[in-house]
Amino acid sequence: MPQKLKLIHLPASPFARKARVLIHEMQLEDRVESESFGLVSPVTINDEVISYNPLGLIPTLILDNQESLYDSAVICEFLDELGQGGFFPKEVEERFPALKLQALADGLLDTAVALRYELALRPIDLHWPEWVTHQTTKIRRALAEFENQLPLFSDQPTIGEVTVACALGYLDFRYSELNWRRDHHRLDDWYSDFAKRQSMIDTEPSDPLITN
What we know:
By secondary structure, this protein is an alpha+beta fold.
C-alpha cells in the first residue's frame, strides 16, 4: 500500500483549511493525513516545517517520496488531480474565473493574516495605524467584490468558492468586530448555506492561541 501523503497544517490556518476542505470533499482522508508540526509565525522558527518548505510556511504537502509541495494553490490543484474532484475546471471559460476568484480570496487572506500579525505580534508602540486602516479597507473592498460576483458563483463549487468560504470563515474567527455581514447580506446568505457543508463543519478553525 502506498505511503500516505501528509499535510502540514495548523487548525487556525485559512490557507491550510482550503486543502483540508478539498480532502474532505473528495474523501481523500485514507490517502492524505493532516498533522501539525507546532507553531508557525513570522517570529517563530520551526525547523521541522523548514525542512520541507524553505519559507517555513503552511500548508505544505509531503509526498510519498518525501518531496514536498507548497503553497495552498499548488497543493489544492494537486489534490484535485488526485481525487478528480473538478474543483479546478478544465475548460478555459470556467477555469480562469475560478482561478481569479481564488486569487481575490487569497489576497484577502494575505491581508487579513498580515494584519493579524501586526496587531497580535508587533509591540503596540510599533503599530502603524495608517497601514492598519489601509489593510482593513482592502478587506472591505474584497468583500464588496465578492458580493458583486455572487451571480457568477458556481452551483458546483470550484476552488474559487472554496477559498471565498475559507476567507469568510477566517474573518469570523479572527475579526468578529469587522461585522462583515452587516453590509453584505447576500454574501452572508451564500456563506451561511455553504458553511453547512460537512467539509466546512469538520475544518472549522480552532485554537485562538495560534497566531495566524
